[in-house]
């Protein structure tokens, strides 16, 4: 499997740091770089930018939301593929490209923990990705999922792409990896973030009684150079996320990053590690 690199050039961004951000890992330049190349990895393993049956709708012209869009890579690439549609990216801080396609609109909103700033039944398609670090389990259930459904048109699709925070091969054979990913999960739980929330999403969606035809697709993302095509990218995604979060939480020292990362890379190659990425989509009733 060859990495499908984005057709959109690497984005030049204007970044405003907010120390009050609720996300465990701040959206600094390193994190934005990680989000940009994660787009290429996930597009590759799923063989496309979305899984919902919305291609015909997008070709005709639709309103699409990229929720918690980060640097807007997904919205910009989709806008090139579907020029008749309008793409909105919403984020709580300014980390958007300085130049954007004409059919893309970026919105900074401070209300994303309570309310998504769009009217009822506005979007034909909503895509959510890499948002697990933003919200607690109760926020997902009581605020975010209901809000996403509120702004989705009847007959429209909501799609969520998130990972299980678990690596294959955790255990006695990988003591350094296991130690640090357990610290990472403990950090998530201290913020009431559920590392396995993605496993509960179909049940949460179903409990709203507002969506139907809930589907899911689970793909393995290799971690380590044992998979010479994608594994190095997967390892960069995982190891940088874990260690940079632990540095932010002062659980490890910044100067130890490279040494720990090298040891983790040896271990993931030894067990041919991977993690599972999920896409879950559903259609709004009505």
From TrEMBL:
Domain of life: Eukaryota
Pfam families reported for this sequence: Methyltransf_25
Span of domain Methyltransferase: 64-156
SUPFAM superfamilies: S-adenosyl-L-methionine-dependent methyltransferases
UniProt feature coiled coil, ranges: none
UniProt xrefs under InterPro entries: Methyltransf_25, SAM-dependent_MTases_sf
Name of the protein in question: Methyltransferase domain-containing protein
């Amino acid at each position: 499997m060859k990495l499908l690199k984005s057709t959109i050039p690497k984005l030049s961004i204007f970044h405003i740091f907010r120390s009050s951000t609720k996300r465990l890992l701040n959206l600094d330049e390193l994190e934005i770089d990680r989000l940009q190349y994660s787009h290429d990895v996930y597009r590759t393993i799923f063989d496309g930018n979305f899984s919902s049956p919305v291609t015909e709708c997008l070709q005709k012209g639709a309103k699409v939301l990229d929720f918690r869009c980060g640097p807007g890579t997904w919205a910009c690439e989709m806008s090139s593929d579907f020029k008749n549609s309008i793409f909105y990216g919403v984020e709580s801080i300014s980390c958007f490209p300085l130049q954007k396609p004409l059919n893309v609109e970026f919105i900074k909103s401070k209300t994303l923990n309570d309310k998504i700033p769009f009217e009822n039944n506005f979007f034909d398609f909503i895509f959510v990705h890499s948002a697990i670090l933003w919200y607690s389990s109760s926020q997902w259930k009581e605020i975010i999922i209901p809000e996403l459904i509120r702004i989705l048109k009847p007959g429209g699709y909501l799609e969520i792409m998130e990972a299980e925070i678990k690596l294959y091969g955790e255990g006695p054979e990988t003591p350094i990896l296991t130690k640090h990913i357990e610290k990472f999960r403990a950090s998530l739980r201290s913020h009431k973030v559920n590392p396995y929330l993605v496993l509960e999403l179909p049940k949460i969606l179903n409990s709203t009684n507002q969506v139907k035809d809930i589907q899911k697709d689970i793909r393995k993302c290799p971690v380590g150079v044992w998979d010479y095509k994608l594994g190095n990218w997967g390892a960069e995604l995982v190891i940088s996320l874990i260690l940079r979060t632990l540095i932010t939480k002062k659980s490890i020292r910044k100067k130890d990053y490279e040494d720990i990362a090298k040891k983790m890379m040896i271990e993931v190659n030894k067990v041919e590690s991977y993690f599972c990425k999920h896409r879950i989509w559903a259609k709004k009733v009505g």
